Amino acid sequence: MYDRPKILPTGDRAIVVEFGDEISEECNARVLDLYNLLKNAKVDGIISMIPTYRSLLIKYDPLEIDFKKVSDFVETASNAKRGEYALKPKIIEIPVAYGGEFGPDLDFVAEYRKITPEEVIQIHVEPLYRIYMLGFTMGFAYLGGMSEKIATPRLETPREKIEAGSVGIAGSQTGIYPLDSPGGWRLIGKTPVRLYDPKRENPILLQAGNYIRFVRIEPDEFFSINEEVEKGTYQIKTYEYAGRQ
Amino acid sequence: MAAFRVLQPGLFTTIQDLGRYGYESQGVPTSGAMDEFAFRVANILLGNEENAPALEITMLGPTLEVLEDVAVAITGAQLPVEVNGKKRTVWTSFPLKKGDVLSLGAVSSGCRAYLAVNGGFKADVAMGSASTYTRGKLGGLEGRPLKKEDLLFRELGNKPARFYRVDERYVPTYKNVAEIGVILGPQDDYFDEENIRLFLNSTYAITKDSDRMGYRLEGPQIRAKQKHDIITDGIVPGVIQVPASGNPIIMLKDAQTTGGYAKIATCIWSDLPKLAQLKPGDKVKFIAISVEEAQKLLGDMENSIEQIKATLRGVRYFDVSVNGKHYDVVLESID
Questions:
Q1: What is the assigned CATH class of domain A90-240?
Q2: Is A177:A163 a contact under the CB 8 Å cutoff?
């Protein structure tokens, strides 16, 4: 991490506040603290923000607040104590049916790592995954925390269509496809929960700073949850994050 | 009741407004009109809210059957406009009657035109915006471009009693080569002076591989000092990424919200309309300016919008028949 955050212009309507040049929880926490503080402070002229691994991009309206003012303000804010605006992270439970038609690459991952499919599942459901940021596509979360024991390279030839809800591994990353899309991740399971649902009040489920826990379900549970999701009666389980476990 | 039936959709016609803000943190691109200046003026000509949903037309315009009496305004790229075969001009609002056929041809200069209707087009509002984002199937008309037989509705039914033309002084002319102001950074330190000079002293061509998401450029390749990849971070429309190929890419309204390539510079907001009017084969040259200068230019753009409002010329349309012959008469106020 840098001693002092760098404030850099990104054009004439945005600045980016860089806290470091690394992927770490500590650096990402600084980004999210500032994001949360500014979101709660509702500063006139700040339009929207994009928190990422190590920086916060802030879009502003120069007709309301100019570059110097927004930079000064953000400089002060980025050094402020976390106080009442500190992020209160949530854990979101993502039920996943593993293997078979839900995760056609589970066996490959097991073979590649020379362990059993059952072990792959156990290793995958064990950690709490931190949501560092969203990006790449609508609702896609960059997760941290997957064990290297199940790291597997991407497919050589990407699939043309991967269904929304598919859970995959690419290198040392794991992720969930929020939309039907082409992709090269090794698919190990699938969740019936919708990461993007236009009918929901908050159409996108995941937010940077929260955590994900994958919970293993059986195929029949997948279908019953799926039915509830379709009817709009399914309650996504979330609880407070009590700190590092 | 619908206002139009789509007889021909044009090349790529979508409903847009001024963009979707507040969801970028969750990976949702802003989308919105590529040329906000022309878009806003189209709505101003009809007395609409400046953000009222309008059609963004790309290269080749649609043909619409008029199903109710409405008023429209067309701005942006120069393209032939006809109502039942009679010519109409762009940067003007005019009435349409039930049964008319409005047809827009291929652009002769510029790339994108805007067609606004009085009351605004009715659209799916997703996350606070009517803008179509085709890759995410969001907003507009089922999140897709118009197709044959679509029905287009209006959001509000108010009717302007007067029609206007934009004073010629404020009508932009679109050239095939545009000078675009840029602010260096945020990763200009990834490039040495020689490469930054090369970037600023060269002319780049817009390639065929260019759309609302971004323009891929062809020209002298830019090399980073060490690496082109950064830790993925935030993107705004106008940002210029330089991947390892050395060919710069200007990210635009439908660009993803984050990216992993070094960003050498960012186009200034007041020049995005000019950029939006470039088509494949057109050329662009970048001029580095300061943030302060850029923000002054942005203020100037707002002032010219105010000037346009203050200097709108009244236009009246008559269908006159003399000795059994019909004449289409357009009267304009002189002052």
A1: mainly beta
A2: yes
pLDDT digits (tens, 9 = 90+) for A100-116: 999 999 999 999 999 99
Backbone angles phi, psi at A34, to 5 degrees: -65, -40
| Nearest-5° Cα angle at B195, B189 to B196 | 60
Dihedral angle of Cα B86, B92, B98, B104, to the nearest 10 degrees: 60
B112 and B150 inside one domain: yes
Are B244 and B117 in a shared domain? no
Domain that holds residue B79: 4-172+312-332
Say how many C-beta atoms besides its own lie within 10 A of residue A44's C-beta.
8
Rounded to whole angstroms, the Cα distance separating A101 from B219 reads 47
Decide if B268 and A9 are in contact by the 8 Å CB cutoff: no
Give per-residue pLDDT as tens, A195-240. 999 888 889 999 999 999 999 999 999 999 999 999 999 999 999 9
Residue B330 in contact with partner chain A when CB distance is under 8 A? no
Look at residue B320 and give its three-state secondary structure: strand
User: Does residue B82 sit in helix, strand or coil?
Assistant: strand
- Cβ within 8 Å, pair B295-A66: yes
Q: Which residue of B has its CA nearest to A48?
A: B22
* CATH 2.40.100.10 domain residues, chain A: 90-240
Report the number of distinct structural domains present in chain B. 2
Question: Chain B: nearest CA to A244, how far in angstroms?
Answer: 24
> In this predicted model, what pLDDT tens digit does every residue of B102-152 receive, in sequence order?
999 999 999 999 999 999 999 999 999 999 999 999 999 999 999 999 999
Q: CB of A35 within 8 A of CB of B258? A: no
Contact B294 A134 (CB under 8 A): no
Sign of the CA dihedral with A77 first, then A82, A84, and A85 last: positive
Contacts of A138 in chain B (CB under 8 A): 26-29, 136, 138
Q: In what helix (H) or strand (E) does residue A220 lie, and over which residues does it extend?
A: helix A219-231
What is the complex's ipTM, to 2 decimals?
Answer: 0.95
Which of B127, B183, B259 is opposite residue A12, by nearest beta carbon? B183
Nearest by CB to residue A139, choosing from B27, B186, B263, is B27
Sign of CA dihedral A27, A30, A35, A38: negative
Q: Which architecture, in CATH terms, is A6-85?
A: 2-Layer Sandwich (3.30)
